[in-house]
Amino acid sequence: MNVTTTTAPHSSVLLEVEVPSDRLDREVAESVRRLSRRTRVPGFRPGKAPRAMLERVLGEGAVLDDAVDRLVESAYREAIIETSTVPLARASIEVVQAEEGKPVVFKATVPVPPEVALGDYRNFPFAPEIDETDDPKVDKVLDELRDQQARLDPVEGRPVRDGDYAIIGFTGTRDGVPFEGGSSERAPVIVGDGRFIPGFEEALVGATIGDPVEFDITFPEDYPEAELAGQPVHFTATVKELREKVAPAADDEFARSVGDYADLAALRSEIRRRLERNALDRARHRFADRIIEYAVANATVDPPDILVDEEVEVMHDEMKAAMARQGITEEAYLAATGKTAEEMHAEMRPDAEKRVRTLLVLSRVADAEGVEVPPERIEAEVAEARERYASNPRLVEYVGSERARASIRSSLRRSLVIEKIIDDWLVAHPDHPALPHVEDPDADPGSAA
Question: Which of 116, 262, 333, 415 could form a Cys-Cys staple with 364, CB 3.0–4.6 A?
Fold first, then answer.
């Protein structure tokens, strides 16, 4: 058997194989024996019908076709072993010549793992950037804490202002006729929160309890109800109840009410500490992202279509999982967006190609750095995902699949190799502030809020 190998586009190899004619002769004889055992031919016992009678039942050329199929399959396996070719997926095979008395000739286009030529990925010309923690940022968190502890007090003797909490009754009409969904006896509204259509909440500012206000509004062009989109309507609204949010004073008593703090200074000190820890955590993540971008930009790789297709499916699975957590079915999503699954996949493809390129480069970097993921770490991730999706049998089945495990392994390997590069950089730059891992025992990435 003769095999020639040629590099083909899109990370594939072309194998041109020539198999001697005597092997086809032996395969034809074996096909006659095998088919005659399986085929009922009148007048003959199973396994005894001659080729001519078999082909009268199965059709002319059936024996040769079966023999060629079996020969090509076995010759292909021999060819990839002989050439040390590692298929990434099933080969595309074209039979060029298949005549008795002549060699069988076929071509196999085999997708193979792409070559990744690494460039520089360690001597990057940038450093971690740590956000400054200043008094205004501490004040912002403190104000958020006070807002969480605020009470709603009744308002008397003044009109509605931005930020007020109100209970209103309203009626909407179009051309003098009330429309469906345009009325309510008691509707809660936070004035200025933007939950009503544009202009509605603004029209309430200045209103007083019990006094109706009237105003005209045009519904947005992209309003979900087609009959109202872009249409002018008239509203009459009455404020029935009005409350304002009153936050507690930023003093020692407030500090003691939210935790084990001696005074306000202690609370502010803790807020600052956590903000500084968060800043270090963000700096490490941004640094990791820049290292990845640097490594990918300096590498050369042509992602094969098969891997991009698989990554599209992974992204599709991720999207379905995210929708399931929100109680949304894929069918409902496609109906709401007016897209087909094929259109959705086409939109995902550029990002899928970018992800594949990144994963291929980082996998090659991990090879160069000798980084591997312990099997128990993968199984721990699988167990955690099964628990997270326990209410969805289909997702539980997916996270236990080999494809899901491969995705988890790739993700973990990417993280581990980048963390290694960051740690090595920090060792080489001892004057730079430490950037602890989130999982470090002393790490505290949460905010005081």
Answer: 116
Q: Where are the domains of the chain?
A: 2-111, 151-246, 262-428
Write down the pTM of the prediction: 0.69
Pairwise CA distance, residues 267 & 448, whole Å: 9
Could you tell me the CA-to-CA distances from 202 to 162, 215, 256 in Å, in that order? 8, 10, 38
Architecture of 151-246 per CATH?
Roll (3.10)
* 262-428 CATH, one of 3.30.420, 1.10.3120, 3.90.1200, 2.60.40: 1.10.3120
pLDDT surpassing 70 at residue 446:
no
3-state secondary structure of 139: helix
As a whole number of angstroms, the distance between CA 429 and CA 166 comes to: 57
User: Which pair of structure tokens corresponds to residue 311?
Assistant: 């990554």
Predicted confidence (pLDDT) at residue 46 exceeds the cutoff of 80: no
DSSP 366-398: HHHHT----HHHHHHHHHHHHHHTTT-HHHHHH
How much is the average pLDDT of 335-340?
Answer: 84
